Amino acid sequence: MLLLLLFVNSSNAQTNTGIYLSQYQYSANTSKLALVKSQDGIELQKLTLSGPDAALFSIDKKNMLSIKPAARKANRPLQIELTAVTSSGSRKQQFTILKDAFIRNKVIAHRGAWKNTGATENSIASLNYALQIGCEGSEFDVHMSSDSVLFINHDPIIQGMKIEETPSATLKALKLANGETLPTLNQYLSEGMKQQKTRLVLEIKASVISKERGIALSHKVLDLVNEMHAEAWVDYISFDYEICKELIKLAPYAKVSYLNGDKSPAELAADHFYGLDYNLKVLQNHPSWIKEAKANNLHVNVWTVNEDQDMDFFLKEGADVITTNEPELLLKKLNK
Ligand code: MG
Question: Which residues surround ligand 1, an ion (CB under 5 A)?
Fold first, then answer.
């Protein structure tokens, strides 16, 4: 029984007994990369590096992971393993670390780039179009099947089936309008991780069934991102404040922004959010919030901005990024 318990704990690294990095990206001019921390606060001693790219890194007594100058030129994902000794045994975990070469052009494609491409929204094709046209980020929505598999779709119902009440085998057989099968989160992340220019903006949908199921979905998402080593690519958004707070608690490195518009920038900052991602009407009704967000070091995203004059307004107001169904129009405007 004890052995079984230990096995369950060690396999569920993300949610309780893992080790994590305070960040998963490095820039061309930093050597200090991240602090290595434990999920449950236990002291990590004698950290050692191994894995294919271990020689490119070093770690000091304060658990600061640094990258060697020569390695900063690398444009591929770097793979390391960290082993720590703790008072309750050793822990070992693999990490993928990425150079921050992500595009910074403010354009977030809402459900991928679908409107002007003929791709179905939230399909792999819509993601690939967003990558091709060079968006800073591509947004997509995640739900969980009855047997806890994660699928990409906007609505909680697809082709008459409630995703949360349908088994994954049935959902995997569904065909989208463009002929693709309904993508799983695994497939979506695998596609997005083939490149290193466009961030993957992952919206966790609240459960229609219960609050608890929404929290379970957020755990599943974090576990999969952790298992796939996708941390460096993924940003998180949700309308559900409890889901956001759970993400921040379990993954303090994660960039989590709130969608629902009913919290002030100061409230979000107090709860350690990365940013706000509010409807354009909310930000127009609270003209001071963009400035307040910046004063609180919060990242500002706004949705869904499809009209030319609204794009101009939020560019002038200093939004960090703009989520739009018209990424081509915003890109054209920014490239003028
Ligand atoms: Mg969404």
Answer: 141, 203
